Structure formats: structure tokens, C-alpha cells
């Protein structure tokens, strides 16, 4: 009797120990992952706080950190950071306003009306969504060159708007689909016209998705490097991503800590927005991609 | 009120008019508007006729010369710019298609209305008609601006690229100095037969496929592993852990890739000086040797790409009911059996199409290839770098070698591959099918 009891308890001990060991192992794996994730980010941050702009001499210890690099970006006459910032802000603003408007029109039509060509239109949008604008870069380069929009911010704006329409339209359409149709039907019975139903009833209800679309479109020019690289040629037209890349590429080791400072200023706000909206973005994008 | 109106109307006016022939209306509509006039809708008929005639009149010259230009691509060197001819030709083509579609709709409309008249329908007054046509036209008005932009910014360039692939546009034969001409499939044939092209093409293609497969699969595997670990009931501070694990997704990619390319630098990168050197007393040529560059790029992409998949997986795992696992435990299932029979199928079912997009994304992941070391290191005997994938090779051909036609041809191949993927994704996402049936 006593023996049996002992056996059971030791068995339990064993299981408990095993469980504890497992949990420890899981934490260990996660800790390793934390280091792998945090190290490059921390390193870049430390670089941006270093007084020496030379990569060889830089140190990671926070003893002599300073904000000198940040100051250089904004005050030095040799720094184009503010100019790039202004260009990016201009592109972002125009893209956001135009895209949000056109996309909400398109999504409203696809969600609320049954018209000839609707199904084919949806298919076309879904197909076009699969092809990144980048794939046609040869054509874009030559086309923009001919119409004189190469090395012009408007050329960049046009591509951002056009390329973003299919994807964004699906996001907004998916949201419109979830709003009850009885709302606009009762408004119609009360004699409201098409535009009135749209602007006074549906648009206010769709505010959450529209703000996400707007925010997304606003951030894209801050993060995108490729399209500016294809379209823009002269330094006074650069956007932030392209400007910083060319800046660090010109003299890699010497400019690095200034680049890091400029990059931290872009990355911190964007990362904050992403982390705050993560749940919404991930599930929203997921449903937009599968639901159609 | 409204339903009442609808019920009353047909009973009031239902007088069948069997002399009215839909066929006649259709035939008359060969001249746009005549069918509608036959249907006793004079105003609509006249408006249609004027619209169609005006468009035909104004655009005829443009379309005719555009289509002609598309065939010849210009006749006088230095005067005719073949690229402009090509664009005008495509625009003329698009316009023709658009016009033909409208023409077809016009005939159909005359037929439908005639049919309705035949069974007793009577068109209402001018005001009511106008309101009805505004109702039908409204969705098109909404779509108009977006669709127009899409045509000019996405469809036109894609078509232009498609046509370009069948011309001879390169550094030595470039408009406006020279004229382009149609060369049929010559670019594609050269790509697979000429040894200088073939070797590069094959090695880039093989690496592109390997890269896509290895990087994406590792990304998904790591994400799955971590999602299962953090879903364990015994783990605390889950929210914090999840936030940290998602961090790489939140930081803009171009920033992290440049940071990594500094970390991996052969001479002063921290990975060599702080980790490899002290541990193994040697340095690894991350930037200058093809194999190490490829390994570095795959590792970086896994770092960049796993968080999104991880977030997806975490969401799905939280949704799997505990009943499944309890029932499996009753039956004495091992952990591995629980994973293969419950967890894995759930994950794949819920995220399958999205995982496929991850593969297409990496297939065209220009950012990482270019920002890490511009597709390098250079490889002897081929005009693409050791880590160049198809899209970054296209970039090089366009912007450094001016091999425009070849770049377009390769882009076309890329497009076909992506379209195949897209097709599978269509089939797999059930909800779209449901939507399509509406």
C-alpha cells in the first residue's frame, strides 16, 4: 500500500519535473528568438545614437550616446532629409486622398449594385491584384519617359494610385458587404438618391476600414523603395526610402550612423502603427485576400 | 407603397403586342439607335445615334492610324518614334474593344426592350425613363474613375510590356534613332538557344525557384513551430511574447535589410567580427561568395517573413476547440499524432491560399535581393549576379544593359508563372466561388 502510494507520487513528481523542463525549454527557445529579433534592431538604434559616424569605431554601449546624428539630419546644410521628407509627405497625401475616394466608389458599386459586367470586373480585379506593378517596370520606365513623367513625383503618384486600386477595393468591398442592406433600402424608400445613400449612410459606417486604407496608403511611400528607384532620377525628387538608400550606399561605413538615425525616425512611428493595428491588419488583409 | 406600385402597373397596362419583333429591333440596331426608335423610344434612340456617330467620327482617324502604326511600327527612322506608335496602337486597340462592347450592349438593349414591349410593357414618360437610365448607369459612373486609372496605369503598361517582348528594342536598336520591328518569338528562342543567354537564364531560374521554395517553406515552418510553442497553456505573458515576435513585420523592410547588409558585411560587419571570428577564428565571405550570399539572404528573409505567418497561425490555433485535443487524449494519441491529425490540417485549411501568396511574394521579392547586395556577387560568364532572381535580373537588363525587349520577354515568362499560381489560388478559395455565383 505504502509502496504503491510512493510509486504514484514519484510518477507525479516525474511528470511535474518533465512539464517544468518542457516549459523551461520553450522559454529558452523564445529567449533565443528574442535575441535574434532584437539584436539587429537594437544595433541600428545604438548606431544612430553614436557620436562617431564611422562604422569601424562605433560602440554599442550606451555610455556616450548622443542625439548628434539626428541634429545633423535636420540642421546640416549637407543633409537633404527634410527635402525628402517633404517629397514623401506630398506623395503620401495625394495618394491617400485620391485612392480612398476612388476606392470607396468602386467598392460601393461592387458591393451594392448588380450590373452587367460585375462578375467579370471582380475577376479582373482579383487577377490584377496578383500582378505587382513592378512586373511591368520595363514598360513603366519607357512609358513615363515618353509622356515626360519620369523623374517626376506625379508619375510616382499615378503608379501608386493605380497599382493600389484592386487590393484596396477588395478590402473596402468586403467591409461594405458586412453592412446590412436594409439600411440603404429603407433610405431609398424614403426617397434618398444614390449619392445621398452613399455619402450620408454607408460612408460614415465604413469609417474604420476607410481609415485603415488611408493609413496604409499614407505609409506606403515612406516604406517603398523600388518604385521611387525606377521613377525618380534627381536627388531633389527623392523620397525618404530612396534618399536614405543612396545616402548610405554612397559611403557605406561613413554615413551609416546618420542613415540609422534617419531610419529610426521612419521606423518607430510606422512600427507603432503596425503593432497597434496588428490584429485588425492581419485579419483584415487575410479576409480581403481569401474572401474576394 | 413601392411594392403596391409595382403590383398595379403591369395589370393596368398589360396589352400584349405580338407584332413587335425583337429580331427586327436587333437588325435595326446595326445602325445604333434605330432599334430603340423602333421601340418607340425616340429620345433615347437619337441620343444613342448621335453618341455613337460622334465617337466614330472623332476617333476614326486615330484608331485607323493607330492600328496601322501598330503593324508597321513606323517607316521613317529619326522621324517616327516606334514606341509612340506602339502606345497609340494599344490605345486604339483598347478603344476598339470598348466601342465593340458598347455596340453589342446597344443591340442587346434593343432586343430586350422589344421583347418586353412584345409582352405588354410600355415605356414610361421622359422623366421616368431618364431616371431609370440614371439608375442603370450609376454603378458605371462609380467605377469609371477607378477603372480608367487602372487601364492607364496597370493594364496599358502590362500590354505594352507584352508587345515589347516581340520587338527588337535594345541598346543598339533604340528609338527614336532607329525603328523597331516585330521579331516574333525570336527573343524567347534566343533565351533558350544562345548559350550566353541560356546559361544565365537557367541558373537564374533555378535559383529563383530554389529561393522561393526554401525561403518561404522555412518561413512557414518557423512560424508554425513558434505558434505552437506560444499557444502552450503553461506559457505566461503571451501578449508580450506575441508582440515581440511580430516586431520584424512592423519595421519597414528596406530599413532592416540595409541594417542586415551592414551586419553581414565581410570586413566590418558585426556577424563576422563579433560572432564568427571569436568562435571559429575565421571570417565568412557573406558578400563575395555566391553560396554564402544565398544563405545570408535566405536567413534574412526568414527573419523578415515569419512574423506575418506566425500571426495568422496564432489566430487559427486560438480558434481550435479544446474538445478535439481532449478526445484525442482519451484515445491515447501521442503529441505527434495530435499535430498531424488536428493542428496541421486546421492550420492548412484556414490559411492555405494565404500561404500560397507568400510563395508568389517571395518569387517576386525584389527588395531583399537588391538591397542586400544588388544581386551580387558577380558570376563569371553570365550577365546576372549570383543571387539575382528573375525580377531583379529584369531590373538589371532594363536599367543597366538597356536590353528592353529581352527584359519584357522575361517579364512575360514571370507573368505566366504568377498567373498559374493565381489560378490555383482562385480554385482554392471557396468563398470567391460562392461570391461568383451571386
From TrEMBL, chain A:
Q: What keywords tag this UniProt record?
A: Cell membrane, Membrane, Sugar transport, Transmembrane, Transmembrane helix, Transport
One Pfam family hit: BPD_transp_1
Q: Which domain of life is it from?
A: Bacteria
Q: Give the molecular function GO annotations.
A: ABC-type maltose transporter activity
Domain (ABC transmembrane type-1) spans 85-277
Residues of the signal peptide: none
Localization:
Cell membrane
Choose one Gene Ontology CC annotation of this protein and give it: plasma membrane
**Where the protein is mainly located, per its record?**
membrane
Q: Which InterPro entries match?
A: BP-dep_ABC_trans_perm, MetI-like, MetI-like_sf
Q: Which GO terms describe its biological process?
A: maltodextrin transmembrane transport
List the CDD domains hit by this protein, alphabetically: TM_PBP2
Record function comment = Part of the binding-protein-dependent transport system for maltodextrin; probably responsible for the translocation of the substrate across the membrane.
Q: What's this protein's family per the entry? A: Belongs to the binding-protein-dependent transport system permease family. MalFG subfamily.
Its name, as the record gives it, is Maltodextrin transport system permease protein MalD
Q: Which organism is it from?
A: Alkalibacterium kapii
From TrEMBL, chain B:
CDD domains in UniProt: TM_PBP2
Domain (ABC transmembrane type-1): residue spans on this chain = 205-425
Give GO MF terms, alphabetically: ABC-type maltose transporter activity
One biological process GO term for this chain? maltodextrin transmembrane transport
Q: Pfam families, per this entry? A: BPD_transp_1
Spans traversing the lipid bilayer: 46-64, 84-105, 140-166, 204-228, 240-264, 295-318, 339-361, 404-424
Show the GO cellular component annotation of the record.
maltose transport complex
Sum up the protein's function in the record's words.
Part of the ABC transporter complex MalEFGK involved in maltose/maltodextrin import. Probably responsible for the translocation of the substrate across the membrane.
Its protein name is: Maltose/maltodextrin transport system permease protein
Record organism:
Alkalibacterium kapii
At the highest ranks, the source species' classification is: Bacteria, Bacillati, Bacillota, Bacilli, Lactobacillales
Amino acid at each position: 500500500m505504502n509502496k504503491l502510494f510512493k510509486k504514484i507520487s514519484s510518477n507525479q513528481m516525474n511528470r511535474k519535473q518533465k512539464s517544468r523542463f518542457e516549459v523551461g525549454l520553450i522559454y529558452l527557445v523564445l529567449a533565443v528568438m528574442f535575441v535574434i529579433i532584437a539584436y539587429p534592431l537594437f544595433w541600428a538604434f545604438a548606431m544612430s545614437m553614436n557620436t562617431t559616424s564611422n562604422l569601424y569605431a562605433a560602440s554599442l554601449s550606451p555610455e556616450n550616446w548622443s542625439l548628434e546624428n539626428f541634429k545633423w539630419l535636420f540642421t546640416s546644410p549637407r543633409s537633404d532629409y527634410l527635402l525628402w521628407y517633404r517629397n514623401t509627405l506630398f506623395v503620401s497625401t495625394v495618394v491617400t486622398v485620391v485612392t480612398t475616394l476612388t476606392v470607396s466608389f468602386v467598392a460601393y458599386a461592387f458591393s451594392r449594385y448588380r450590373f452587367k459586367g460585375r462578375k467579370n470586373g471582380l475577376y479582373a480585379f482579383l487577377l490584377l491584384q496578383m500582378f505587382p506593378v513592378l512586373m511591368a517596370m520595363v514598360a513603366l520606365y519607357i512609358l513615363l519617359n515618353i509622356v515626360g513623367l519620369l523623374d517626376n513625383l506625379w508619375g510616382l503618384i499615378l503608379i501608386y494610385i493605380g497599382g493600389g486600386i484592386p487590393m484596396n477595393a477588395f478590402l473596402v468591398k468586403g467591409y461594405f458587404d458586412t453592412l446590412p442592406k436594409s439600411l440603404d433600402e429603407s433610405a431609398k424608400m424614403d426617397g434618398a438618391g444614390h449619392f445621398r445613400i452613399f455619402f450620408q449612410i454607408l460612408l460614415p459606417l465604413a469609417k474604420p476600414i476607410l481609415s485603415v486604407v488611408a493609413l496604409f496608403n499614407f505609409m506606403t511611400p515612406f516604406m517603398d523603395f523600388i518604385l521611387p528607384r525606377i521613377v525618380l532620377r534627381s536627388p531633389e525628387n527623392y523620397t525618404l526610402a530612396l534618399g536614405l538608400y543612396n545616402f548610405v550606399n554612397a559611403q557605406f561605413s561613413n554615413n551609416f550612423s546618420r542613415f540609422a538615425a534617419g531610419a529610426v525616425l521612419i521606423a518607430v512611428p510606422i512600427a507603432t502603427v503596425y503593432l497597434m493595428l496588428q490584429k485588425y491588419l492581419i485579419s483584415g488583409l487575410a479576409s480581403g485576400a481569401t474572401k474576394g | 407603397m413601392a411594392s403596391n406600385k409595382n403590383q398595379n402597373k403591369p395589370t393596368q397596362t398589360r396589352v400584349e403586342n405580338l407584332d413587335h419583333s425583337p429580331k427586327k429591333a436587333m437588325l435595326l440596331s446595326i445602325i445604333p439607335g434605330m432599334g430603340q426608335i423602333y421601340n418607340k423610344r425616340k429620345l433615347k434612340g437619337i441620343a444613342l445615334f448621335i453618341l455613337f456617330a460622334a465617337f466614330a467620327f472623332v476617333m476614326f482617324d486615330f484608331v485607323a492610324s493607330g492600328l496601322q502604326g501598330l503593324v508597321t511600327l513606323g517607316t521613317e527612322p529619326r522621324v517616327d518614334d516606334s514606341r509612340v506608335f506602339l502606345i497609340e496602337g494599344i490605345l486604339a486597340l483598347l478603344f476598339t474593344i470598348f466601342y465593340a462592347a458598347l455596340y453589342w450592349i446597344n443591340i442587346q438593349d434593343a432586343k430586350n426592350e422589344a421583347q418586353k414591349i412584345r409582352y405588354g410593357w410600355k415605356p414610361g414618360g421622359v422623366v421616368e425613363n431618364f431616371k431609370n437610365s440614371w439608375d442603370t448607369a450609376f454603378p458605371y459612373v462609380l467605377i469609371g474613375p477607378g477603372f480608367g486609372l487602372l487601364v492607364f496605369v496597370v493594364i496599358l503598361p502590362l500590354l505594352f510590356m507584352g508587345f515589347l517582348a516581340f520587338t527588337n528594342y535594345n541598346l543598339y536598336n533604340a528609338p527614336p534613332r532607329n525603328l523597331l520591328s516585330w521579331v516574333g518569338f525570336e527573343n524567347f528562342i534566343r533565351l533558350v538557344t544562345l548559350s550566353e543567354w541560356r546559361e544565365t537564364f537557367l541558373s537564374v531560374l533555378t535559383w529563383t525557384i530554389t529561393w522561393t521554395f526554401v525561403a518561404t517553406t522555412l518561413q512557414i515552418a518557423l512560424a508554425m513551430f513558434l505558434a505552437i510553442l506560444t499557444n502552450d497553456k503553461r506559457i505566461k505573458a503571451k501578449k508580450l511574447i506575441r508582440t515581440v515576435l511580430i516586431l520584424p513585420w512592423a519595421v519597414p523592410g528596406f530599413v532592416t535589410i540595409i541594417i542586415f547588409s551592414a551586419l553581414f558585411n565581410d570586413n566590418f560587419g558585426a556577424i563576422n567580427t563579433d560572432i564568427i571570428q571569436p568562435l571559429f577564428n575565421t571570417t565568412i565571405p557573406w558578400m563575395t561568395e555566391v553560396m554564402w550570399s544565398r544563405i545570408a539572404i535566405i536567413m534574412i528573409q526568414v527573419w523578415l517573413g515569419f512574423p506575418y505567418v506566425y500571426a495568422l497561425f496564432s489566430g487559427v490555433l486560438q480558434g481550435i476547440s479544446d474538445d478535439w485535443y481532449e478526445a484525442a487524449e482519451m484515445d491515447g494519441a501521442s503529441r505527434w499524432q495530435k499535430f498531424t491529425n488536428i493542428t496541421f490540417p486546421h492550420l492548412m485549411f484556414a490559411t492555405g491560399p494565404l500561404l500560397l501568396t507568400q510563395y508568389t511574394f517571395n518569387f517576386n521579392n525584389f527588395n531583399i535581393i537588391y538591397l542586400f547586395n544588388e544581386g551580387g556577387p558577380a558570376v563569371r560568364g553570365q550577365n546576372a549576379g549570383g543571387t539575382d532572381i528573375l525580377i531583379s535580373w529584369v531590373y538589371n537588363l532594363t536599367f543597366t544593359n538597356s536590353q528592353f525587349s529581352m527584359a519584357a520577354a522575361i517579364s512575360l515568362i514571370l507573368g505566366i508563372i504568377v498567373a498559374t499560381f493565381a489560378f490555383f489560388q482562385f480554385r482554392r478559395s471557396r468563398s470567391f466561388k460562392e461570391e461568383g455565383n451571386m
